[in-house]
Write a structure and sequence with these properties.
285 residues, mainly alpha
Length: 285
């Protein structure tokens, strides 16, 4: 059961990332984040009411609030990076977010084993190679790599904070609800500031109603992935669940290759693969 739900998490996260990146190519990243997360917040709110999650309210929710502030930065950076592409490089690099929980553990006195040390070395090598043989080349490529690393830092921070935000399943739903509401509020403020500065909130000044189902899918797939991951972690070793769930970039890369027909240079594909391998070593160490 752990393997089933963890792999379902990878599938859902991978498809959500692909959908978010694809939408951002036509709609501003801030709009994608705000709308998709608003839908997710509405669904989570209904779940919290149905499960009595409000009874889990307490000081731990401040961790969820903090995660909600970091989340929009990570998501916007990630969606922009996916829009710049190629997704087959961007998505695996984002899995370096696992380095943040490892860093927190080091700060708290833990010491990495040989597997984790090897994972760090392999992941860093992957980051360098994924940029291609000419890191001083096209500005778009450099920007995509930097945005992905910012997103990885943000996602890792969110994961570490959410882990402290609840101790039960119903508490997790409440924490995720608080996080999503904060995401919407923070993203909404950023969107307002962007518009005031001359940015575009809607493509052509009109709400993309045709894209609403895709926006809903991105938000709901993210929520569902959190739910399946919780079930996986409760029914088996967390390490196994985390490793299998971290395979979501493979789904994004396969979707990009199958639907968008992306082609990567050999050195970029190798770098992305090494980044993914390094992440798995970190997670299992």
């Amino acid at each position: 059961m752990t393997a089933f739900f963890a792999l379902a998490t990878s599938l859902l996260w991978g498809l959500a990332d692909f959908g978010g990146g694809l939408l951002t190519r036509r709609t501003p990243a801030l709009t994608v984040v705000v709308v998709s997360q608003a839908i997710a917040a509405a669904v989570l709110g209904a779940i919290v009411v149905a499960t009595g999650g409000w009874s889990e309210a307490g000081p731990r929710l401040w961790f969820a609030f903090a995660a909600g502030l970091a989340g929009p930065v990570a998501m916007i950076s990630f969606y922009k990076a996916l829009a710049l592409g190629p997704m087959g490089v961007v998505s695996p690099l984002a899995t370096l977010s696992v380095a943040v929980p490892v860093g927190v553990g080091l700060f708290l006195g833990e010491r990495p084993g040989l597997t984790q040390v090897a994972g760090i070395a392999v992941a860093v090598t992957g980051v360098v190679l994924a940029g291609g043989p000419r890191l001083g080349g096209a500005a778009v490529q450099r920007r995509a790599i930097m945005l992905t690393l910012i997103a990885a830092l943000g996602f890792g921070t969110v994961f570490a904070l959410i882990a402290e935000a609840s101790t039960t399943v119903t508490g997790l739903f409440l924490a995720l609800f608080v996080q999503r509401v904060t995401n919407v509020l923070g993203g909404g403020v950023a969107l307002y500031v962007s518009v005031r500065r001359g940015g575009e909130a809607l493509p052509g000044g009109r709400f993309p109603w045709a894209a609403l189902p895709a926006l809903a899918f991105v938000g709901l797939a993210d929520v569902a992935a959190n739910g399946t991951y919780s079930v996986a972690a409760q029914h088996g070793p967390v390490t196994v669940a985390a490793v299998l769930a971290s395979l979501y970039p493979v789904v994004t890369a396969l979707a990009a290759r199958g639907i968008l027909r992306e082609r990567l240079r050999a050195i970029q594909a190798a770098g992305a693969g090494l980044a993914l391998v390094g992440t798995l070593l970190l997670a299992t160490g």
